[in-house]
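The pair is quoted verbatim underneath.

:::
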Amino acid sequence: MADIQLRFHKDMLVLSGSLSHAFGIQGFDEAQQILLPVIEPEVVEETLRLQLATGAPCLVAPTGAITRARLAHVRASEKDVEIAQAALRIASAFKPQHLIAKIGATGLPIDPSSKSSLVANRDQYARAATVLGEEGVDAFFLDGMASLDDIRCALMGIRKECSTPVFVSVDATEDGTFAGGRENVEDAARLAMEFEADVFGFRASAAPEALCSLARRVADATPLPLLVQFDVPEPPARRATLNPGPFDSPDGMVAIARDLRAAGAQFLRATGKATPAYTGALAASMAGLDCVR
């Protein structure tokens, strides 16, 4: 696998989509999905195969619940090494251009005035980085960070263990706030840069115009490469609508990708109810293009 850092601020790159929708269609609930790399590796393999067939250069491994705090919800906190190794073994077998290991938010409460609380959260992410390991992984992807304190703890934990590139993303509202409206994407972007993140981004359920506006705001706040994730809603066949929207078919990805590129984004990812066809349209429309920021 190539060094992804050599492509920062250069190539437009698309990340493979979220697997939870595909797993849900196959009848697996959230708890079962966490354990799929171990209990149903064939399901994970086939789902990743479809993602890789889209042409997306960055394959995101299904390791989002790898922290022990998250695994404790399914009584599998002691299986973090087993799950990480299984997921990365399946994903790396496809030899993607770039393999990215996802680490979701722990979900633990953080008391910024308590050193023990901060250390406990930091160590959750440090442990996750350790069990995933650096070998064969191009980057860690801190997705859905819940607050500025969460970002700080996560980056301190990972940097305590390794120097692997780190992507950070928060789930933002249309007006650019997150963490229940108490914090905003600009502050998150600046904090991520301060604590040595390599890429910053956000995920939002918003119209293309709002996504582009948020992208420009983040680009003004930090020189880090920008990742934009956007949720695709239910397709028209299952959603009552008289007026087709920009997300109603994979064809709409061409214009959305073009506008986000112009707004400063380098990395793009379709999530929510997006099928591999959406990722494929993004990848095809951005193939061979440089970012323009």
